[in-house]
């Protein structure tokens, strides 16, 4: 990176872009989907503060770094070939467009085409005609919200499926206590250990994270035969 003859305005824009990195880490990577699934899993089990939210965020961050490592490697290779030059706006813009291409490819592969099409149709109704005609499906201004909505939808779908076995346990325990005339005993007192036992017996954390890894179409970029028709829910593995 060259700092000789740096345009102060370009430098300010560059520093401002760096300040947005934490937000981009959440909305443009696998972090959003992973943290949603982990928090729903914690609520489904019934332990509201175990693991704590900070630990869940740390687990999601570690899993995100593992998933996004190949994308980061591709971006690093692009920057290595075309170093950042803050003295030239056009060169900096071209390098940025080339560096973001691996991330763009990742988001395209993990975005719902229907959501992307819906947002593209909305541009014709909400944007000026000249602007709406120029937008493409792979433009970041359209791709980022489509990716975020796709990850939110996928995360809640997986969370719903995770809830099912734990709800079944709650219903069975509640009916048993009612049949035995033990209305004064809280169903949570009995069902919580059973849900923890079930989760531990099926290696819940490892299966859950492994399924989240395989649910993201990242390995398709390098090994198309490996990641076809893989399950997205931990009890299917």
From TrEMBL:
For the keyword Transmembrane helix, the answer is yes
Keywords from the UniProt entry: Cell membrane, Membrane, Transmembrane, Transmembrane helix
Bilayer-crossing regions: 12-41, 53-73, 160-180
What compartments host this protein? Cell membrane
Q: Which GO terms describe its biological process?
A: protein secretion
Signal sequence annotation: none
- Membrane topology type, per the record? Multi-pass membrane protein
Q: Does the keyword Secreted apply?
A: no
The UniProt entry, under InterPro entries, shows: T3SS_IM_P, T3SS_YscR-like
Per the record, the domain of life is Bacteria
Gene Ontology cellular-component terms listed: plasma membrane
Q: What is its main location?
A: membrane
Into which family does the record put it? Belongs to the FliP/MopC/SpaP family.
- PANTHER family linked to this entry: FLAGELLAR BIOSYNTHETIC PROTEIN FLIP (PTHR30587), SURFACE PRESENTATION OF ANTIGENS PROTEIN SPAP (PTHR30587:SF2)
Protein name, UniProt field: Type III secretion system export apparatus subunit SctR
